[in-house]
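Support request, please re-run this one:
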Amino acid sequence: MILIRQLKVAVSEQETEGIRQAVAKKIHITVASIYEIEILKRSIDARKKPDLFYIYTVAVRLDIHQEKKLLKKCAKDTDISLYQPMTFQMPKSGEQPLSKRPVIVGMGPAGLFCGLLLARAGFSPILLERGRAVEDRQADVEKFWQTGLLDTESNVQFGEGGAGTFSDGKLNTLTKDKTGRNQFVLQTFVEFGAPRQILWDAKPHIGTDILQEVVKNMRQEIRRLGGLVYFETKFEDFEVKDGVLSALKIRQAGLNETIRLDAGVAVLALGHSARDSFQMLYEGGLSMSAKEFAVGLRIEHPQTMIQEAQYGKDAPGFLAAAPYKMATKLKNGRGVYSFCMCPGGYVVNASSMQEHLAVNGMSYSKRDSANANSAIVVSVGAGEYALDDPMGAIAYQMALEKKAYTLAKGAVPQQLYGDFCSNVKSSSYGDFASLTKGKTDFANLRELFSEEINASFVEGMTLFGHKMTGFDRKDAILSGIESRTSSPIRIHRDGSFVGSVEGIYPCGEGAGYAGGITSAAMDGMKVAEEIIKRYQVNYES
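Re-run finished. Output below.
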């Protein structure tokens, strides 16, 4: 097959026929001579509004002799080359005997993909999740949004699927992938229920509604392959013998005592909000450090404003809800950027601790709400806590969330951007209202941060207003606090992904090695690969 890049098709054209015509024109052949076309990537080009185009990368099958002739003729054309698909290859099993099933703590994307690979390799892993199965978790989250009654073990942060389950379901990653892991993640999601278009969209997205079904199907597959899955089971401690992991101590819901689980391999895919687990691991001597992260506020705009800014005033209505990305580096050294942008989405109360409040953004698969939202965050680090004190970083994060809870007595505190700049509490919305999951109330959000962070936020917003007209409009709605952008710590591991205790494999976003669903899933795969390459099963599955 022939790989063709930079194939331009007007968005108004019928996709299949438009691509066929564009391919024929690009390589000077007849449409009839095209045997097959596979879409590999699609993005939108809106640089010459109102003329909008899709830009495709495609693989085209022609007669084998015609392909050879074309490749020779177009040898100097960088947009045309031989198609060489990258396929992920499972590693071969190692030789070191493993007498106990590997244990995976956490069932976010890192834990799920690690579990899936180990199950397919015949390792029959044990998966432990402190929260509930995704279908039960959904009911707990909806109850919290409606009543304010928080279940600290089953919420937006904790439970099957991890924090990403109640987010926008974005699958884009900045991680370079030369092994096919990225494509494997996308193909796996499709295999378990996601729409096929995520395989080629430049900014793939599933949506929280579909993602919940995908997660459940993955769990069922792991069980079918011999894996064991335990919900409402919390990892509370670990035992080490002669410098090597020997057991985990776990507690299941409703039991008053811990259970000792023999284990020689444990993957810690804890997620970025497992603060009690981080404390336990730190006290237990596992090597870790604080790292920089970012904090800020979630901002809402009318989606129609974003649509017009990105695609033009007369953009066709069938186009998907438009995203945006903002970023700048200020003279004071702080970065200010948009994070977890949710077109056609909702702001959600994403709290996981009593009397502490955090927000996030979420979209359903259709992305059809009236508002767009994203976090506008400011980088924090050595100016706020000691980088050699991981618990200090967590304490800083928790102190901000405690303030946010207090500001509006447990409701999501909100303020119009113009009032934030004027340092006054808002009393009503402007030309549009907030779309929020959970109770809201007005408060002065400037009270959350230091004046340097507040000034950085405003400076960043002003610059973003120059990039997109109306971005810094006075009635843009701010909600606080966005504090879970990434893990505030990193659990150290070596080149074989092993932590400072032999047998413990820190993994995913909570351990500080990922930033989103796809990169966390890929990190889970990497850890699984290392376990497969090192060990061979020496137990009855």
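Residues 163 and 280 are 21 Å apart (CA to CA). The radius of gyration is 25 Å.
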